[in-house]
Q: What sequence folds into this?
């Protein structure tokens, strides 16, 4: 009889323990998710810190042939009317402009001859980063929009202390970080600051993301959209055709007037081939959103709503079970006391 009287008490303690677990489960579930580094100041993000696109109200208008390049890249004199190239750059007229071969200690560049006159534009370029190694490779490539055309240097094959914007496609981490590599990050410079190679530009970036753009199944593409004084946005195609991932969008960016467009790449002790396949630049116009329009709703993290509802339901179930067990325990004790009297 004593054993039977203790069963409700043991069951009650078990239910209380389960109730405590259920009440803390949402907190544990949230803590288990790896928190990404906080977005840089000025970055356009949603409530979860994820980058959001700002280019929805822009429209391409006039293609800019002066800042676009395609195969065969050069004329009969092995020159291009609108672009210069040098360093280790090699032109394969059927395939690509190869900024570096998959060899150590190479540095190559491709620069527009003319400055970009429009205040707002979009640059879309196909590129490929690949090599023989599956483990150690580097260093990476860069896209430039700067006040002057730069020479060769330590900043991914281009000069340091640039005036304007550099976007780095970095495949080799020189320091330990909380985020993964390959990594893409943008740095604005006024010509007075040096690129921190040892820290991979940490604390200098205005926008960044970790995307594996190396050795992709489809030809990788980058789409850089700039509207003067309003926003700068970079999106990447790296998984499927016409599936774009917003890397970063930064509001209030102001580039130098009439910047030059450039590409450069660098290899060190480790190496990769860095190819530019095509570049298409267009002028854009911006249409302000209609008054009263609401931004499109965004889906939450998959499964988060389900778990939240499940935990809420479990709380009510355990609460009801707790009441039932309490009644059973009370009746068990009462029956035990009555049995002792007789």
A:
């Amino acid at each position: 009889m004593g054993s039977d009287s203790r069963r409700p008490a043991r069951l009650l303690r078990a239910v209380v323990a389960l109730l405590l677990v259920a009440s803390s489960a949402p907190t544990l579930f949230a803590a288990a998710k790896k928190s990404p580094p906080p977005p840089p100041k000025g970055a356009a993000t949603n409530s979860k810190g994820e980058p959001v696109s700002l280019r929805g109200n822009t429209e391409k208008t006039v293609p800019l042939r002066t800042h676009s390049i395609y195969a065969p890249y050069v004329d009969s004199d092995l020159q291009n009317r609108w672009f210069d190239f040098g360093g280790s750059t090699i032109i394969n007229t059927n395939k690509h402009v190869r900024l570096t071969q998959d060899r150590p200690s190479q540095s190559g560049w491709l620069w527009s001859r003319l400055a970009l006159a429009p205040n707002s534009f979009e640059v879309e370029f196909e590129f490929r980063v690949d090599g023989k190694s599956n483990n150690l490779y580097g260093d990476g490539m860069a896209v430039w929009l700067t006040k002057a055309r730069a020479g060769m240097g330590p900043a991914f094959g281009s000069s340091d202390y640039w005036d304007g914007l550099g976007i780095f496609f970095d495949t080799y981490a020189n320091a330990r970080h909380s985020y993964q590599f390959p990594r893409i990050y943008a740095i604005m410079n006024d010509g007075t600051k040096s690129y921190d190679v040892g820290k991979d530009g940490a604390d200098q970036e205005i926008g960044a993301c970790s995307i594996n753009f190396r050795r992709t199944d489809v030809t990788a593409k980058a789409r850089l959209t700039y509207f003067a004084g309003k926003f700068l946005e970079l999106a990447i195609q790296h998984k499927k055709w016409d599936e774009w991932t917003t890397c970063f969008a930064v509001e209030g960016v102001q580039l130098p007037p009439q910047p030059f467009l450039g590409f450069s790449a660098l290899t060190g002790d480790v190496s990769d081939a860095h190819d530019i396949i095509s570049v298409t630049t267009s002028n854009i116009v911006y249409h302000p959103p209609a008054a009263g329009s609401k931004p499109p709703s965004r889906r939450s993290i998959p499964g988060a709503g389900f778990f939240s509802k499940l935990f809420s339901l479990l709380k009510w179930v355990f609460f009801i079970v707790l009441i039932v067990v309490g009644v059973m325990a009370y009746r068990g004790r009462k029956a035990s006391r009555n049995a002792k009297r007789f």
The CA atoms of residues 226 and 232 lie 5 Å apart.
